[in-house]
Amino acid sequence: MSPALAAFQLPLLTAGQFTATKFDSAAAKADFGNQLLAFIAEDFPRKRFTLKFYRVLCQHFGMIAHYDQHGFWAEFFTSAADKLRFLEQISTHPCRGDPAFTFSDLERAVVARVRNAGLVARLRDALARETEAAERTLLNRLQARYQPDKVPVAELPRPRPADWASDQPSLF
Q1: Structurally, how many domains does the chain consist of?
Q2: Residues with Cβ < 8 Å from 77, sequence gap 6 or more?
Q3: Which of 31-35, 64-68, 92-96 has the lowest mean pLDDT?
């Protein structure tokens, strides 16, 4: 069973929303946009970062300066801070160009959904919670070692990875 779609993925993008280019159909634009939104909604899973997906993504949203798929992955998807930088780059992209020659129409649609859903703020908050939980754990370990008489600070549960992109609060 596939996961439920996040609200920012709905309604799914359709070919009727986009202009075909010389090399890509309007349906191809919509398919890529839906793949990108699913990739974001699922917290950037490695299995979705295929070579085909990378080859389209690296040409849009101002992300052309990466040498290969592995370098792109290492740059944007190995930590929450990297993922935040990726979303910030998408959400601030100016989307220039004629849709008959570029993906600017698709870029505008994706940027609008990322902004309207507040994904940058949501991920920024999740990163802050993740950082605080890790720091509290470290503080307790260091105090146990160097100041055993001190009372440990309350530890926070680490957020589940994709909670920031979910429309439903975690039940755990």
Answers
A1: 2
A2: 44, 46, 49, 83, 86
A3: 64-68
Domain hosting 107: range is 7-121
Q: Tell me, yes or no, whether 83 and 63 share the same domain.
A: yes
Decide if 84 contacts 114 (C-beta within 8 A): no
**158 and 80 Cβ atoms separated by less than 8 Å:** no
93 inside domain: yes
Q: What is the pTM of this model?
A: 0.86
The per-residue pLDDT for range 82-119, each reduced to its tens digit, is 999 999 999 999 999 999 999 999 999 999 999 999 99
Same domain, 66 and 135: no
Whether 72 contacts 58, CB under 8 Å? yes
Q: What is the DSSP string of 90-105?
A: HHT----S-TTTSSHH
